[in-house]
Specification:
The complex is a heterodimer of chains A (664) and B (262). Chain A is of the alpha/beta class. Chain A contains 19 helices and 34 strands. The longest helix of chain B has 17 residues. The chains are: A alpha/beta (664), B alpha/beta (262). Chains A and B meet through strand 24 of A and loops of B.
Chain lengths: 664, 262
Amino acid sequence: MQRIGVFVCWCGTNIAGTVDVVAVAEALKKEPGVVFSANYQYMCSQAGQDLIKAAVKEHNLTGIVVCSCSPRMHEATFRKTAAAAGLNPYMVEIANIREQCSWVHKDVPTGTEKAIILGKAAVAKVNLNVPLTPGESPVTKRALVIGGGIAGIQTALDIADAGFEVDIVEKKPTIGGKMAQLDKTFPTLDCAACILTPKMVDVAQNEKIRIFSYSEVTEVKGFVGNFDVTIKKKARYVKEELCTGCGACTEKCPMKKVPNDFNLNMDTKRAIYIPFAQAVPKVATIDADYCNMLKNGKCGVCSKVCAAGAIDYTQKDEFISEKYGAIVVATGFNPISMDKFDEFAYNQSKDVITSLEFERLTNAAGPTAGKLLRPSDGKHPEKIVFVQCVGSRCDACNEKGKEYCSKICCMYTAKHAMLTRDKYPDTDVTVFYIDVRTPGKNFDEFYRRAVEEYGVHYIKGMVGKVIPDGEKLIVQASDLIAGKQLKIDADLVVLAAAIEPDKSARPLATMLTASMDTNDFFTEAHPKLRPVESPTAGVFLSGACQGPKDIPETVAQAGAAASKVIGLLAKDKLTGNPCVAQSNEMMCNGCSTCERVCPYGAITYEDKEFRMPDRSTLIRRVASVNPAVCQGCGCCTVACPSGAMDLKGFASEQIIAEVDAICK
Amino acid sequence: MKFSYFPGCTLKNKAKDLDNYARKCAEVLGVTLEEIENWQCCGGVFTTAKDEVATKLSSVRILKDALKKEQALVTVCSACHNVVKQTNYAIQNDKEFAGKVNRYMAEDEYNGETQIYHYLELIRDVIGYDKVKECTVNPLTGKKIAAYYGCLLLRPNSVMRMDDPENPSIIEDLIRAIGAEAVVYPYRNECCGGYVRLEDAKLSDKKSNAVSESAKKAGADVIVTACPLCKYNLEKSGCEIPVVYITELLAEALGVKEDTNE
């Protein structure tokens, strides 16, 4: 028989306001196994914990029930208290009488009655608890960063700075991501390339960092500290180690009509290309869809002009297996497609562009060498209309666009408007907005400068339609403050398209068993307290893959993710969770049901020799759980038809005892 | 192929051509439209007030009648189609509404089983443009035709599911199938002013003029529509080019148009 102590917490008035804590302590004292019961204002405080420790010693307690807040809040605290008092930490049970009781009930009798029931259930469970000891596993001291934008770059640099090896896997031929495509950055207007490219060079020169560019992660196995990852290095038909990045091939290639995705297809590149001058690695890549040599064997010009002999038309995709201790997801974002927004005539007129396209049009390295010219006729636009929230903050039943605010558009639109007025004072600039949202250091001041100093016309109201009318565009909109319908002419319309997670995020989340929200943003372990960790152990989040973010926030989060990774890699061994599944081999019939339902791949089968009563031996196939991989979800325990699977700490008989206690 | 057919009130007086030619063309294209017996007005406007049930009951009866005959329902007037389809959608998706409606029904329950086709959908999805091409005896080659959708035909998209409401092509595809040239112009899916004409004729004129001028500017000889109210408003506001029903034009191409010389 256990000797159980019950500790009822008031949580100030949080619990005591709706639960008669004294009555709860008294009632639970009468439960089987309970030898001591107390109540206290703040059980989690030092004094409260001391009370528990003293009681353990004085009454020789073997089990503890704390009636307090959610176990997510303080289970770890009270387990440590128990350990300090010499008890096995897994002999502690929490009865959640705050979130699941006092906070949801309004009157004391109901709250008290329920608190007692919850306490009884916890006592019934502790009566069946057994001491558990967590296992240990080693840590591979290398991190994988998936995505080589500013988020991935910053995370990799910070991890490397702490002395650990990092690999960056980037699907494009160069790292740099979206930031490399930007012209200036708000709110200080530094040139994006000037602050980004030195970091790219740092990555390239850092001995601890390896870049797998033009590569993708195709398989992830294992668990925290011990991930086995397969990386596909896509064939770029250029030997990376030989290519000097001289660019001779990109000038001589006769295939000139390849859409240039770096410039959002507003101009063309050659079939062999280096995305931009400061690309890292500065290595050419052949676009196999356009290369004549690869398509029909007729050309070979790049091979002839390459002094380094780096061209290799026979190159194949290469698969690399690596081990990692931690994985950081930094897959970033993309603007949404404007295909469902024909009211803005994006597909009907070349002079309706997205903000990212505008960014390339004003970038010195862009298709117009930084001159703001209309895509249709190359003329200077005299009237520009910016439309905010295109596809952001949409009604869910609208079936197009996103429900969330894309967060960065207000600021970059203010930036675009301001820079346009600064460079071309003759240009009339109007911005249509729903709200202007500028919370951030020096952000609102920036927006106000656009309005007050640069004379940008901000009109509250949405654009209903953009009508191509000869050389011009007619913008039909509402001015909510004046209460008027407007029709204004424009030479160029710029749409602040909503942003969404990169398409690669969803399959990656499946590989990592990392959770996502309905918008395909990765979910953090706790929205406030664990913002850079995924709920899956060993997987961390950096940048816009977790939610819309601007550059300052992305860099901050990238550093935070790196520090979490460093904290993990600094350990030599990881303590596991002992509440894992366990198979009773005598009952297991080897049916594979548990293996099929296990979301973590923790269950394997082995042929095991069993000694029979007649002293003969029998070989049977039985399930075996890898405790380091098992997350203790319990799927297998429910699925097992013979009842052989059980979860330590949450055994079937413990759960039934709880239910019985509640239903009594 | 037999379908239940609901013409609606306007098609029995002001918009006889829309009804008349819809039936004739259907026959040519191998489809029989069987008019529902004892039908009543669709209600004219689908009110979004959730507690408004009475005005939607006639639509339910129409849908139920088609279900009894185990036929899909065909409508041709944009307004009727909108009301009937929205009512059906509400029954399928709003249990409370469905419950209220069914309390008015004398016999079996109706739970949104009937499939509804607009005449244009019937041509696109059941008959097919190839069949239309095949049956065209008098191709309207060289004729520049502007499709006018108005608002009710395509919206709300989550219910109507006919075509992209901001960049539709269903009428243009039919125009091309009968050999004519489809004129695409920006105002083809804008509102004509609708019932606002009763209260503020000037506003309705402004809206209608924007449409007809946009079509004219794009080089159209004629505007086609499936909506009697759109046709009325465009003509009333002084549209300089003829406005005809899509079925009339189809009848001309299929060789079943009578020379009425009205």
